Amino acid sequence: MSNILTHDAEATRKLGYLLGQCAQAGDVIVCAGALGAGKTTLIQGFAAGLGVDEGQYVRSPTFTLMQIYRGRHALYHFDFYRLTRADEVWDIGFEDCLEAGGVVVMEWGDKFLSVLPAARLEIRFDILSADRRRIVWTSTQDSYQHYHGVDMAAWAL
Ligand SMILES: Nc1ncnc2c1ncn2[C@@H]1O[C@H](COP(=O)(O)OP(=O)(O)OP(=O)(O)O)[C@@H](O)[C@H]1O
Ligand SMILES: [Mg+2]
């Protein structure tokens, strides 16, 4: 388990960048937290850390449900916010993306934990005040230890 307090959106984006630099093919990442907690903000940085061209604008795929970005690995960005049943996850091509060997990231992924792979990274966001967020990331299996080597010295908070 690793955790950090961010004091603005830029710091959350920077954490995302550092995590994105650690990403490996096949990783599955759940982002959990209330509306406006910072999930998309972190994923914007994550995409940049994964080598996605900065010109590609990353936003919540709330209506498209999934968006693909090309980086060092493909980034499949899902948003389960509008889904009401677990089986809808399969209707939106989730399984194909899991098998494609890229990196799969889900906003509101905690809604349907039962249909997700057992091995995953979970990132939880808590809103402490207008600009402060506690961000805790946990790996369910040792295969995700690479996300816990994030260089905290790289922080300039
Ligand atoms: N420390 C912080 N970290 C992240 N975002 C912050 C922080 N402080 C303020 N914000 C603001 O909070 C908002 C976070 O929005 P964001 O779209 O990332 O949330 P989200 O969790 O993806 O929400 P949704 O569930 O609606 O998709 C932005 O407007 C951002 O500027
Ligand atoms: Mg979002």
UniProtKB/TrEMBL annotation:
GO terms for molecular function: ATP binding; metal ion binding. GO terms for cellular component: cytoplasm. It comes from Candidatus Entotheonella gemina. PANTHER family: TRNA THREONYLCARBAMOYLADENOSINE BIOSYNTHESIS PROTEIN TSAE (PTHR33540:SF2). GO terms for biological process: tRNA threonylcarbamoyladenosine modification. Keywords: ATP-binding, Cytoplasm, Magnesium, Metal-binding, Nucleotide-binding, tRNA processing. Pfam families: TsaE (PF02367). The keyword Transmembrane does not apply. This is tRNA threonylcarbamoyladenosine biosynthesis protein TsaE. It is found in: Cytoplasm. Its main location: cytoplasm. InterPro entries: P-loop_NTPase (IPR027417), T6A_TsaE (IPR003442). Belongs to the TsaE family.
